[in-house]
Amino acid sequence: MIKIEFPRSDGILDHLSATLKILNDMEKDFEETKKISLDFSEVVWFIPCSIVLISNKIREFMDQGFTTIEYKAPINERVKEHMEKIGFPLGNKEDGNSYVSIKHFKRDQKDKGQVNREVNELIDKMQGKIPGEFGDSIKYILGELSDNIDDHSQFNRASLMSQFFPKKKLVDIAVFDNGISIPALFEQNKIPFQKDSEAIKKAVWGEVSTKKNDITRGYGLRTSKNLTTEGLKGELHIVSRKGMIILEAEKEPIFHDSEENSLRGTFLYFRLKTPKEKLDIYKFVE
Prior knowledge:
The structure is a single chain. The chain has a single domain, classed as Histidine kinase-like ATPase, C-terminal domain (Heat Shock Protein 90), CATH 3.30.565. Helices cover 37% and strands 22% of the residues. It has helices at residues 12-33, 48-63, 77-85, 114-127, 137-152, 182-188, 196-205, 221-231, and strands at residues 2-3, 36-39, 69-72, 99-106, 157-165, 170-177, 235-241, 243-248, 254-257, 263-273. It has a seven-stranded antiparallel β-sheet with strand order 4-5-6-10-7-8-9, sandwiched between helices. Helix 1 (12-33) runs parallel beside helix 2 (48-63), helix 4 (114-127) runs antiparallel to helix 5 and helix 5 runs antiparallel to helix 8 (221-231). The chain is globular, with a radius of gyration of 18 Å. The termini are far apart. 43% of the residues are buried.
C-alpha cells in the first residue's frame, strides 16, 4: 500500500513534486499487483492539484478493466469529508458552494464539441462561486485552453476542477489531459530543445521558428500567461512529461526538470487572485 504524504504548506511546487512521485509509485505498484492501494490516513492537508491527478490516475487504471481499490481515508474528519465532497477517488460528484468537484471525461472522437462543452460547463458552474471582479478572464483562459487541447493534445482522458478560497480570495483551477505532452508535440514537429522545461518555455513565449511549426497556441499558453500573471497577479504552473515551469506575478520564472518522475500528458494549474475591480481582459490579450 502506497503511503500518501503531502507537504504541510500550500506551496504548489512542493505538492506537484510530491504528487508526481505518488503517480509513478502507483504505476509501479499497479504493474506488479494489478491493484490500486492507497493510504491517505495521515493526510491533514492537500490542495486540488494533487487530488485531481491522483483521481485521474485511478480512473486510468479502471479503464483497463481493473477495479480493485484499497483506500484508507484520512483520519482527520475534516480532510476526509472534504475529499469526499470534491469527488475523490472517482470524481464527478455534486458541486458545493465554493468548489466544482473533480470531473473526468473520456474523449469521444465523434463529438467535435466535447471539450468546449465540458469546459463551458465548468465555467458556468464557477460563475456563481467566484466574485464578479474576474469578469471574462477565466472564461477566456479556459476557452483558449479547450480549443487547443482539442486540436493538439491527442488525449483520451481529461480532468477538470476548480475551488474558490473566500478567506484568501484565491481561485485554483486544474486542467489535465493525458495526451501527447508539449515536449512530445515538439518532437513530433521536429522542433529542437534540450530539456522538457525548455519545450514548455518555447510554447509559452512563442519561440518557434516557422509558421509550419507554429504550435505556440498549442495550449493557449501565451494568453493564459498574460492574463494570469499580469491581469490577475496569480500563478500558472505547467507540468508536461519531465518538465515544469512556474510563472508568478512580478517574479522570475522557475524552470524544473525531474530526473525520475514523469507525467503522461500536460497539467495546468492556475492560482488566481481576485481583482480589486472588474478586470478588462483585452489589455492582456495578444
